[in-house]
Predict the structure.
Amino acid sequence: MSTGLRLDVNYKKAVDMPADLEAIAASLREIIDRQQITEALYTYCRAVDRVDRELGYSIWHDGATVDYGEAIFIGPARGVIDYICDSQLKGIAHSHQIANIIIKLAGDAAVSEAYVNSAMRMLHGEQLLQVNTRGRYLDRWSKRDGRWGIERRVFVCDFDEVHPAVSGSLPSRQAMGFDDPSYAFLADGVLAPSAPEAV
């Protein structure tokens, strides 16, 4: 009796297994797709903060277009990377963060909304200013040859502000370009031995 029941259970498992594996594979594929899109959004922030144009170009598909509003830039995606990097070089320091990412997937197509916070320090004459911008990126994505890239971006500015700034006591350690310490660290940081702890 127990043997028959065991055979019935095993038979049911054997029948259901392909469907279960297919469902698991689909779930894993969705997780990977979402992570790849999220990483591309983070890569954009790194690219513009470090003024790394080639890295900035890498998140778009060929022919991608953007609409950041008439006050900023409307046109080809590569052009907005150049525009932003040129603008960053006029400042002292800048920082972009992405948050509240919502992704809707449909096979090899997707749309996303991501909140963006940006801050920039710059000199106006002898006055140190800070420019803060809060907004959202509305992106249309597609996966081509296994790579997710943006086809179309609309930037929605929620609000911005400019105000005088006073530097704190901590010296800045960031750099625009490949002199930033993150480049050497990310290149071999996983394999490099940890520095000895201070005693």
Observations:
- Residues 1-9 have pLDDT under 50 and may be disordered.
